[in-house]
Amino acid sequence: MNPDRSSPQRLAVHRFRKRRGAVVGLVFLLLATAISGVGPVILGVDPNQGGDSPFAPPDARHWMGTDIHGRDLLARVLVGTRISLMVGAVGAAVSLVIGVGWGLVSGWRGGRTDAWMMRLVDVLYALPTVVWVMLALTLFETRCVGWLSERWPASIPALRLGAMMISLGSVSWLTMARVVRAQVLSLRERPFILAAQSIGVSPSRLMLRHLLPNLAGVVIVYLTLTVPAVVLYESFLSFLGLGVRPPQASLGSLIADGASQLNPVRVRWWLLMFPAGLMALLLGALNGVGEGLRSAFEPRDGA
Fold this sequence. Notes:
This protein is an all-alpha fold. Helices cover 74% and strands 0% of the residues.
C-alpha cells in the first residue's frame, strides 16, 4: 500500500527536489562515487605504476597528463577521489556514533551530568582540532608502526588510513553532540515521552524507540554537513604529508604534489588544476546536498 502523498517522507522528498543545487549535487556525488570505484579498472591502468613519460601534458592517451613518475594522473585522481570520499564517510560515521550518543545521554540525564558533559565539549571546542589529529597520527607512527612492521608489514597502509579516519571522526562530533542535546531537551517534555515514562518504558528503550526516530532528520542533515569538513581536514593533513602516504593517493596529496611543481621556470598546471578542481566540485556538491536536506527536514524553510 502506497503511503499517503502528504506523509512527512513525501513532503521531505518534495522539498529536497525543489532545491536544484541539492539534486545536482546528489547526482554528481553518485556519479563521482561510481566512476571512482570502477574507473581505474575500466582504464586498465595501475595508478601506482610509473611510466616512461613523466610530466606529459594532457593528450589522447593520458587525458589528465602524467605526474613526476609518469603515472597516469586520471587514474590517480579517481583513486584519490575514492579514498577522500571513504575517509569523509567513515570519519563522519565515527562522529555520528560519538556525537549522537554523547548528546543523547547529556540531554536525557540533565542536571549535573549534562553540565559536566557540556563543559567537556566546551573545553574540546577550545582545543585546535587539527593539532589534536596531528598528535594522534604522530603517536600512531612512533608507537605502532615499528611494532607492526615486524609482524604485519602489509597492513600498515590500511591501518594508517584507519587511524586517520578514527582521529578525524573523534574531533568532528562536537557540533553533532550539541545539536542532539538541544533536540533531546525539547523532546523529553513532549506528551508522548511522558506517556511512555508513565507506563514504565525503560530509559534505554525510550531513547532507542522514541527519541532516536525523532532525531533522524536533524542527525542526517548534520551528518551530511560533517562529511565535507572531514574531507577538508584529510586534504589538509595530506597536503602537510601527515595523511595518505605514497604510493596511495588522496585529493589532498595530489594537490600537494601539484603545488610542489609550481615554479617560475615551468608551470605544470595539470598536476594542480585537475585534483584541486575536483576537490572544489566535491565540497560544493556535499554542501549543496546538506543544505537541501536541511531544507527538506525543516518545513519552515519552504513548502
